[in-house]
């Protein structure tokens, strides 16, 4: 224990994504997104069109139940709620000249409910739900034209909601592009035919689009705070051998370059070396370089696991660590093989603060686990002590990082209400404080039930973290 507590203005809440909670995939003028043809999530192949076994098509029906769900968030005491706007609700194909008013009106209603309950919105502009047409007609972010489509989309959001939303994130886990080119970058070229040239050009286009949105936001919303969002995974050397330490440095570089550009406004030397050694010549215009200079106000990130690295060629990657790396023999793992490392969250908070000197926001962190609905004193609930222990231990490390001097704006637990997993497209991989009665086969009433962790997190928020043990 330390004498340091959470700041009085610390933002407490939860996080979701439109494609994992909304459902109503064909209502309100919405077009198809890349998620609508990923019935097996990141781990499986895409399909030509939506299929009945894709849980995301209905998800947990937030589209019709948002008022009920936001009321539950208010009961938890949320001061912030992170959600994404589905690009294909606003521009169904992605390349239209005018937005879809029905889609805009839906998010007006969501913001109405948040305002009614005094909950600050934290909006992700693009969260793995690029319109499918942009993938099929343009090959996604490999095509420079997507910068203009994204700029138009962002400008519409800023003009419509700018007086109501202070915190914005440009892209979710933008560095996941190199690991999930279709889901993250709408790149339709099959992964086995995708060249490094195409992949890194797509990366450049996304980074320019992110910086351009930041520039537009500052023009239209001078009081707003614009952040980037990266997937954080601290990496440790498997042994003290210098070669393993060097392998960690290279792995960190590959992961951190996206943040480096969005915070510092230019490509770092180590990345330019990578391009040279791979024979890649990016199409970077003078306008691109000027745009990249529009850097973010804060850095947000997801944190679920750490990894190890080794220079030894006989070391096999661990299956559970979604961004590669080797399993850590000192750590336990979740039911889905993700290694559990609360101290890694303190490490990455310090690493990002030392590296970038920008305020930080933990916008995803949580435990995916199989939950069993039981009845206690006549009330259905889930006795999710494992989730409580996981979140408690991670939040203690956030508190320690604050004691270290790190500027942390807030914490939004991932999947505050059960949702469809992005990696596996399962609902049985549950994260929430709120149980949703729906199974992987699509059956269930969609009724909501408070888990044991619901009361625990409400107390954490009420005491501003003082109840953590």
From TrEMBL:
One of its GO terms (molecular function) is beta-glucosidase activity. InterPro entries: GH, GH_1_N_CS, Glyco_hydro_1, Glyco_hydro_1_AS. Keywords: Glycosidase, Hydrolase. Gene3D superfamilies: Glycosidases. GO terms for cellular component: cytosol. GO terms for biological process: carbohydrate catabolic process. The active site is at 364 (nucleophile). The keyword Transmembrane does not apply. It comes from the Bacteria. The keyword Transit peptide does not apply. Belongs to the glycosyl hydrolase 1 family. This is Glycoside hydrolase family 1 protein.
